[in-house]
Specification:
By secondary structure, the protein is an alpha/beta fold. It has helices at residues 35-45, 59-62, 65-72, 151-160, 178-188, 193-202, 215-221, 230-239, 249-262; strands at 2-7, 15-20, 26-30, 48-53, 75-79, 91-93, 98-101, 105-111, 120-124, 130-134, 137-138, 141-142, 170-173. The protein is built from 9 helices and 13 strands. Helix 1 runs parallel beside helix 3 and helix 5 (178-188) packs antiparallel against helix 6.
Length: 263
């Protein structure tokens, strides 16, 4: 499996992806908003884009479908309930479905509601797994729930699915929000040295050559994975005295999501 992360350079800071089979050159385009750039990368690498996967229905993830399909005839894949929201879908997928790319690549669909209720993450069947997380999980952060999502569902997705992923899983999110999210981590947990060092090092990173984190790193610096951290809980209690001495992980998650909205 070969992964190309494509930086769009737009105001929303979207990352698009091409996932290719090294034997056949078939490629899957994930959320190819900047379809011209994706087509250029495929051409440079000698790949043929045969499928498009939209992680969810938002326009900054589906806006390039038409351009890719016109140029390549690729099939559009998305969550099985997204049909009314994503035009011209060819295949609806749900939890456990597998998307094959060429001969060698298998990507398993995770049904991950929260950011929207029709959100798919892809987990590769490779020695070192890779998670294409759309707007569910970001570097050092979690998706918002403003446009068709629910914070409680997002918590369920984290606690029942993302928490179980292996430490060495590579994270490929739908946007570059690393620096901003690390600043939020430090606002919540000022003594988090991992987050501080990472912010110092990557504050001005070139998104064309962005850091790819592992889940192990995320668990050290992503507040939404640090619901048991005494520092996170103590800071929350200052603002929400009602949560008591032993708030549940769900309460902590929901409060963090709320704070992140107005931060
Ligand atoms: Zn979105």
């Amino acid at each position: 499996m070969i992964v190309e992360q494509v930086w769009t350079g737009n105001a929303y800071r979207n990352f698009n992806y091409l996932v290719a089979c090294p034997e056949t050159g078939d490629a899957l385009a994930i959320d190819p908003l900047d379809f011209t750039k994706c087509l250029d990368v495929a051409q440079e690498r000698g790949w043929t884009i045969t499928q498009v996967l939209n992680t969810h229905e938002h326009g900054d993830h589906t806006g390039g479908n038409k351009g890719i399909v016109t140029a390549t005839g690729a099939k559009i894949i998305a969550h099985h309930n997204a049909g009314g929201r994503i035009p011209n879908m060819d295949r609806g997928v749900g939890a456990g479905d597998v998307i094959k790319v060429g001969k060698t690549v298998e990507l398993e669909c995770l049904d991950t509601p929260g950011h929207t209720m029709c959100h798919i993450c892809l987990l590769s069947h490779t020695d070192q797994p890779a998670l294409f997380s759309g707007d569910t999980l970001f570097n050092a952060g979690a998706g918002n729930c403003h446009h068709g999502g629910h914070p409680e569902e997002l918590y369920e997705t984290f606690s029942t699915q993302l928490d179980r992923l292996g430490e060495n899983t590579l994270l490929y999110p739908g946007h570059d929000y690393l620096a901003n999210n690390l600043a939020f981590t430090l606002d919540r947990e000022p003594d988090n040295q991992v987050a501080r060092e990472m912010l110092d090092r990557y504050r001005d990173q070139d998104p064309n050559d962005a850091l790819v984190t592992t889940l192990a790193q995320e668990r050290e610096m992503n507040t939404f994975f640090r619901l048991d951290s005494p520092g996170v809980i103590a800071r929350l209690q200052e603002e929400f005295p009602d949560i008591g001495d032993q708030p549940s992980p769900k309460e902590v998650f929901l409060k963090l999501r709320e704070l992140r909205n107005r931060w």
